[in-house]
Every structure is written in C-alpha cells, then in structure tokens.
Amino acid sequence: MMRSKVLSLVARAASNRMMSTATKLTTVEVNDKTGIATLTMNRPPVNGLNLELLQDLKSSIDEVEGNKSRGLILTSSSSTIFSAGLDILEMYKPDKDRIRAFWTQLQETWLALYGSSVPTAAAINGHSPAGGCLLATSCEYRVMVPNFTIGLNETQLGIVAPKWFMASFLSVLPQREAERALNQGRMFTTEEALKVGLIDETANSKEEAIEKCVAFIGTFAKVNPLARSLTKQQFRAADLQQLQNERQQDLEKFLFFVNQPAVQKGLGIYLEGLKKKAKKQ
Ligand SMILES: CC/C=C\C/C=C\C/C=C\C/C=C/C(=O)SCCNC(=O)CCNC(=O)[C@H](O)C(C)(C)COP(=O)(O)OP(=O)(O)OC[C@H]1O[C@@H](n2cnc3c(N)ncnc32)[C@H](O)[C@@H]1OP(=O)(O)O
C-alpha cells in the first residue's frame, strides 16, 4: 500500500469514531470534525431487509439519537445496491412467529427513522427498490449516484405498499406523481428521480454523495436544534401517529394479505425470476 494511502487511512481512523462493532449488520461512524454519523447497511449481497438487519438499523438509529450526533447519513457498504428492500424470504412461506416479529420490527424501524429528531439524509449509492426506497424517503434529503434505480415497485410483485410507505413517498412527491408511480410500480432511474423530485441531488460517487449529505446537514448549523426538530416532528406527526394508532391492525392486515395463496404464488414466481436472472449473470 502506498505510504500516502496508509497515512490517509490513519488520519481518517483518528478523526472518526466507530460506534458500532463489525459483528452487526450495520455500522455507525461519527466524524469528529462534523459530528455527523454515517450509518452503513452491510448485509451482502443486496442489503435485503430481514429481521436482523431491521433490528440493527433500529438500534443504530437509537444510538445516533443518543450520542448527540449533528445528523445521520444512511448509506450502504455495497457498490451497487443501497437496499433491495424487504427480504422476500421473510414473506415467502413464512414462519408464523418470525413474520410477526419481522413486520413489527419494520414498523419500529420506520417510526424511528421517519420520526428521528436529528437531520437525516440518504447517500443512495446503488439500487433502491421498495423497502430501500422507503428508507431513503424516510430521510429528509436524498443524494443518488447515477445508473441506478429507485421506486416503490410493490404492485409489480403483486403486493400493496402499506399506507405508511405511501406517507414517506408523499412527503417527497406531489400526490398525483406519487399515485401514478405507485399504481405502476414504477422504478425511476437516477436522472428520472431527480427530474421528478424523488431525489434532491446526484453525485458521481458514494464519497461525493456523502459530502453533499454533509453539506445539507450543515445548512442547519445556525438553526436552533430544538426548534428544528420540533418543526420536523410537527410536519411528520400525523403520519407517525396514524401508524402508532393502527399498529396492530396494520400487522393483521399484512399477515392476512401476505398469506393469501395468490400472493404466496406471486412471491414464489418473483423469487424464481430473481434467482434465474442471478444464475444467468
Ligand atoms: C393493504 C396493504 C396491507 C398489507 C400489505 C401487504 C404486503 C406488502 C408488504 C410489503 C411491501 C414490500 C416491500 C418490499 O420491499 S418487497 C421487496 C422488493 N424488492 C425487489 O423487488 C428487488 C428485487 N431485487 C432486484 O431487483 C435485484 O436483486 C437488485 C436490482 C436489487 C440487485 O440486482 P443484482 O443483479 O445486483 O443482484 P441479483 O443477482 O438480482 O440478486 C442477488 C441475490 O439476492 C437475491 N435477492 C435480491 N433481492 C432480494 C430481495 N428483495 N429479497 C430476497 N432476496 C433477494 C437474489 O435472488 C439473488 O439470490 P441468489 O440467486 O440466491 O444469489
């Protein structure tokens, strides 16, 4: 390794504090200069959101809330995938108890991220379908690297995005645009996403995406943190409260829907298609 690279790695290690251990499916790194935490998802190959990744995401968000970070940047350790969304294996021929825990954890993770008191931004360094798009749209700002796709493609899988997925989407897109995209299960390219407003900026690399997220979080430097966070909470309170009030019904509805034979059949065919595509590559 070149000496300069070694020196830069040493310098980086000195100015960043690793808050979470590598045994988790997420890591949190706080930059000592900016005070901003980078939360990285690391569940190869596609950051499929299974029960364990959702648990780690929630505890990492809690960690950032608790360690007085100035902001949270969500990203991925993969070079091509931000998150492939919910791990379909959690929903296909599911175990009765595990699928309950899985959906309950997804609700909790969304409540924590969408309702986070710190400024949040997503550095979308890869594809971001469905649950991946949910995470990105739960943040306040999105910067995306070119040649990837993002969107809520649920109808393409024969499933329906729950109301709170729609709420995140609607916090970013106008109703007409959101409704059409959801009905179509449309995946947007980076360029299309920028044009429609689903993302805020593009960046040529993950590093540049993170820099732009840092700049966004920096725009709050002179704003009173309590006033900022209470204002954010007020904007999001109705969406958060709606899920809080309906958590049990939402779970039962999901379980009923996902256990329908036609839905199971559709998920099986979709998974098979993914596996065939992977084998061809
Ligand atoms: C009234 C309403 C009430 C209730 C609602 C009820 C139901 C609604 C519930 C939930 C909403 C659902 C949300 C979701 O997030 S569903 C998941 C949607 N995700 C996708 O469609 C993405 C599928 N994946 C891809 O398109 C590609 O994999 C991707 C572009 C992400 C990456 O492509 P790449 O070529 O790099 O990798 P692959 O070779 O395709 O994949 C590698 C490996 O990973 C497996 N894989 C991929 N995605 C998933 C996934 N989401 N879950 C599980 N497994 C996944 C893929 O099969 C390959 O596996 P293997 O062949 O074993 O290597």
TrEMBL record:
Pathway: Lipid metabolism; fatty acid beta-oxidation. It is found in: Mitochondrion matrix. GO terms for cellular component: mitochondrial matrix. One of its GO terms (molecular function) is delta(3)-delta(2)-enoyl-CoA isomerase activity. CDD domains: crotonase-like (cd06558). The keyword Transit peptide applies. It holds the Pfam family ECH_1. GO terms for biological process: fatty acid beta-oxidation. InterPro entries: ClpP/crotonase-like_dom_sf (IPR029045), Enoyl-CoA_hydra/iso (IPR001753). Homotrimer. PANTHER family: ENOYL-COA DELTA ISOMERASE 1, MITOCHONDRIAL, ENOYL-COA HYDRATASE-RELATED. Key enzyme of fatty acid beta-oxidation. Able to isomerize both 3-cis (3Z) and 3-trans (3E) double bonds into the 2-trans (2E) form in a range of enoyl-CoA species, with a preference for (3Z)-enoyl-CoAs over (3E)-enoyl-CoAs. The catalytic efficiency of this enzyme is not affected by the fatty acyl chain length. This is Enoyl-CoA delta isomerase 1, mitochondrial. It comes from Drosophila yakuba.
